[in-house]
Amino acid sequence: METFISLVLLFTMYSFLGWLCESIYCSIPEKRFINRGFLNGPFCPVYGFGALLNITALLPASGKLPFPWDFAFLFLGGMILTSALEYATGYLLEKLFHATWWDYSKHRFNLHGRICLHNSLLFGLMSVLLIKVIHPLAAAATAALPYPAAPVLAGGLTVYYFADGIITVTNILQLGGKTRQLQLVLDEIREKTAGVKDLSLYTMEQTLDELSSRAQELKSDSLQNFSRMMDVLKEKADATRLESAESLKEFIQNLINAEIRARISLLRSRQAYLEKIPHIHRRILNAFPQMSSIRSPESFARLKTAAKAAREKVKKQDR
User: Fold this and answer.
1) Where are the domains of the chain?
2) Do 283 and 315 form a contact (C-beta atoms < 8 A)?
3) Prior bond of 136 cis (ω within 30°)
4) Within a 10 A sphere around the Cβ of 196, how many other Cβ atoms?
5) Alpha helix (H) ranges present in the chain?
6) Integer CA distances (angstroms), 18 to 21, 52, 186, 255, in order
7) What is the pLDDT of residues 30-70, one digit of tens each?
8) pTM for the complete prediction?
């Protein structure tokens, strides 16, 4: 029982330190605070597991070799162990959530984009620092906790990790579901508008956005207002590169088609969701800027763009 309590407390310390280092490391170049935690709280569990893995495997051999071989052993051992853990974590996350959470493909000497030499060297240095400096202090701090406080704190943290983990995983799955729904809508709209010459999905969305913003003004129940709608579409003619009146007619026919109207309704739902992305979804997207969907890359990219736009909007309002 004492071992379990000690492990929970040490795991918490190292998860917090990992979150702190990650957040600072990523926030400085972005010039804004980035919560790099996988969980909602200030913790990076992979750092907690990595630290405990290093302590379990390397601490018993620490100090048994002369300097500098002792440090070299800790450096190489820590680099290998933490790199293996990062690779396995990336692989499991891809399989569980059908998304890549980070990508080191642009780094030299990377392996499948999941690990790279630069980070592995940093992990090796951190492993030496962990074994020689941080862990002795952390172990002393946990040992100094009185009996009533230590088990209560460990128990509360365990409950918290389970609760936060369930909430986080549930929201990640919901994000994946929304992404797939949006991709289906985009694919359906693209399929139904495929016959319109030189009309891209992006242009279609722009046109629909303009019509939607003027819906109250147009009131297309009358012939007069239908004519006004035609004027709006004609204004878009240059942007959509409709080459003739026949192309414009074809565009209108597609627009008023019942199935197209259904797709427009879905597109409006898509827009409503993009404008109101839940906070926890935005947090995940901001925490992992290189995250991408394996199954629905296009719609996921749109979610990331919308999340960034929402962040910029809040930033402007705060000025």
Assistant:
1) 2-144, 176-318
2) no
3) no
4) 19
5) 2-30, 45-58, 69-97, 117-129, 135-143, 149-192, 201-213, 215-218, 223-235, 237-240, 245-256, 258-275, 279-287, 297-318
6) 5, 12, 39, 53
7) 788 888 888 989 999 999 999 999 999 999 999 898 989 99
8) 0.73
